[in-house]
Amino acid sequence: MISPHALELAQTLVRMNTVSHHSNLELIHFIRDHLASLGVASRLTFNADKTKANLFATLGEGKPAGVILSGHTDTVPWDGQEWTTDPLGAVVRDGRLYGRGSADMKAFIGVALSQAGQFLHSDAPFAIHLAFSYEEEIGCFGVKELIADLRDAGVRPLACIVGEPTSMVPAIAHKGVYRYKCCVRGKEAHSSLTPHSVNAIEMAARVVGRVRDMAEGFERDEPRFEGFDVPFSTASVGQFHGGIADNVVPRDAEFRYEFRDLPTANAAQMQAEVVAYARALEPAMHRVAPQAGFRFETICEIPSFLGSKDDEVTRLALRLSGEPQTTLVAFGTEAGLFKNAGIPTVVCGPGSIQQAHQPDEYVSLEQLARCEAFMAGLARSRSLG
Ligand SMILES: [Zn+2]
After folding, report:
1. Residue limits of the Peptidase M20 dimerisation domain (predicted)?
2. How many whole angstroms from 101 Cα to the centroid of ligand 1?
């Protein structure tokens, strides 16, 4: 059974609207004040306009190093979704806690917070760090600031547990998510005078074709990474806009695309290939219109994650969850960023990704109880592995 205190904290967090484009400061201040009541200070790092913050706190100050419990405070929106319950209601019904962010991933944060007193007075040889970020859902922007702040402050965590919903099965790999926008500037003309124009849609389409060719190449040639639903890297174009009339050669076109690269692949190289292909088209465009060309914007770059069965933190997560083996997940998380900062990391949290981002999102109380037992076990741990 989940304790009333942990459930109440999870409900309190769900009731706060922290959709990614909103401020998360109400929630961050609530956590800061809760920790302050235990005598624990929080480090906050803000976004540029100070409307959002990450929170980092250490329970067990003075111990040589600590294990991070990492969660993001933002949620996806629910516009247009058919909910039968209030997304901010945090209603408990039929053994489930309903609400936006219940599974992804406020319940994890609530349970972690409910154990703060235990972590504080634990005899474990390591401290517990709480690391709660903003803007994970739109590109892991907050946690990049948080990790940079830790580096600058000389904090060197031992390990990290990212509490994304894995049904409490420790996950040691996921693909990366790299999204870009390509804006194409051509030169308009009456469509009877095409030689004097640069057709932005047609130029964009050539690059789109290249992305498609690359996707087919991954499927054909890439060494398989077994365990993923799609065991090779993928590429796809998600949006395409351009053109104003049938008889006007379009001046502008724009498309957005993504790569989901295997942990063994290299998304930077993929993007470089697209850019190089586009650049090679530009000289011909410039002969008609010097201002024509391609402009690329990065939307988000979330690195893939590859942990290890042999990492102490993975063995710890297996022991605490009681699961016999690790898994892989299909979604992106902050894990690759922690790992790339030199911190051994595992992903393990309550609830299922099946319910995340969906109408009537929920996390079962059974999962919450398992998460609470995991955390209580962590507080009682005598060693990491
Ligand atoms: Zn999430």
Report:
1. 172-283
2. 8
